[in-house]
Amino acid sequence: MTYSAKLKCIRGCPGEYSVYDVIYRCPHCGGLLEVVHGVDALKDRSPEEWKSLFDQRIRTNEWPYGSGVWGKKEWVLPDIDDENIVSMYEGHTNLFWARRLGEEIGVEDLWVKLSGNSHTGSFKDLGMTVLVSAVKEAISRGQPIRAVAAASTGDTSAALAAYAAAADIPAVVILPRNKVSLAQLIQPIANGAIVLALDTDFDGCMRIVQEITKDKTIYLANSMNSLRIEGQKTVGIEIVQQFDWQVPDWIIIPVGNLGNISALGKGLLLMENLGLIDKRPRLVAAQSANANPFYLSYKEGFREKVRVQAKKTSASAIQIGDPVSYEKAVKVIKEFDGLVEQATEDELANASARADRTGMYTCPHTGVALAVLFKLVSRGVIKKHERVVVISTAHGLKFTNFKLAYHRRELEDVVSMYANPPIELPADVSAVKDALWRKLDEVETARANGG
């Protein structure tokens, strides 16, 4: 049987569309579209055959299957020409056993999926390889696309600019001025994107990019475009694969525009439908308290979509007040018996710093997820014996200013419990010895007291 993928309305409206059409919403109801695979065709392989195939492809040199995304091509975009795939061999990121942190908080089986260990330093690469590849395929099929555009708080723009540059397709990036880190700003600039910095927030940028992309020659690259979800869904599949096809009890992920948790659920459900897994993990969506519309909606039983004016947060990539993928995310939370929780600026910053002291180097968004983990463990929701995975969405090096401000005790609304500033001394042996012995004594005392 031939493997296929089509676009259909998430609300069940009639009609299906090619994944290479320039379309993002249902023409009948305005709802989001999703990529739907021919599951009956995919069942021509047994669960064990799929597992064996995917395991064989790990880091192969055979194009394009060495990618963590394209190694699952049949589940992503089965009919794309391999020559049009734009890949940096993304995926296959480390599943880090957070043994020391787990011991500290009372979780015996804690893992952190380091999705930021990727080409542009964030999990957005997983989705962008699929979207840009689909655009290249669409152009080869006659679509008059001149450029690909996205609104971004940083990581999306970096991924779009890099993959579009590799594909030789112009990229347009719309950012909120002075609201992204310098490390994130320079990435699309360096990759040659057309960068527009606007005097608004992410939601304002999102409204403008949706207007611009009504012109079908400018292709929308934000997560309301369901092609991004197809790449991002592989993170859940990859986690299970890394546990020798065993499903963890919990997966916690920081959320903003809600495409990531939608994708996570989508990948896991496909595995279940094809018989590769027989249980579902519980999913947790972690939000910053300064940008918490999904949390507020959850607290009201999802009776209506809550929109907020997002306030400044160190977790800038999720500083979003009107998430586009709300409907998809609600569905996933319900299907996975999921939870939504929030973290304050103080909680996320100290959670990030605490994790760093056990050998990680976490971004503030991962700090949000870790702070939520700590809350759920302290409440007894997550049990000591359960296997827990926290998804780290970006590399900490992209947020150096956040790290410096924390250790200098300069972050607003944060008491830096784990600050570790350098000790400035004269170049004198006695002064160095005195400071060193004093510091070592402090460390030993803290260890003895369980700190």
In words, what does this structure look like?
It is globular, with a radius of gyration of 22 Å. It has 451 residues and is α/β, with parallel strands linked by helices. 50% of the residues are buried. The N and C termini lie far apart (59 Å). Among the domains are: 95-121 and 229-407, 3-Layer(aba) Sandwich (Rossmann fold); 426-451. It contains 16 helices and 13 strands. A six-stranded mixed β-sheet has the order 4-5-13-10-11-12, with helices on both faces. Helix 4 (124-140) packs parallel to helix 5 (155-167), helix 4 packs across helix 8 (226-232) and helix 13 (345-356) crosses helix 14.
Which features does this protein show?
451 residues, globular, Rossmann fold, alpha/beta, four-stranded parallel β-sheet, six-stranded mixed β-sheet
SSE blueprint:
Elements: E1 5-9, E2 17-18, E3 33-37, H1 39-42, H2 47-56, E4 95-97, H3 99-105, E5 109-114, H4 124-140, E6 147-151, H5 155-167, E7 171-176, H6 182-190, E8 194-198, H7 202-212, E9 218-220, H8 226-232, H9 234-242, E10 250-254, H10 259-273, E11 282-288, H11 293-299, H12 326-335, E12 339-343, H13 345-356, H14 364-378, E13 387-392, H15 400-407, H16 429-448
Parallel strand pairs: 5-13, 6-7, 6-9, 7-8, 10-11, 10-13, 11-12
Antiparallel strand pairs: 1-2, 1-3, 4-5
Helix pairs in contact: 4-5, 4-8, 5-6, 8-10, 9-10, 10-12, 13-14
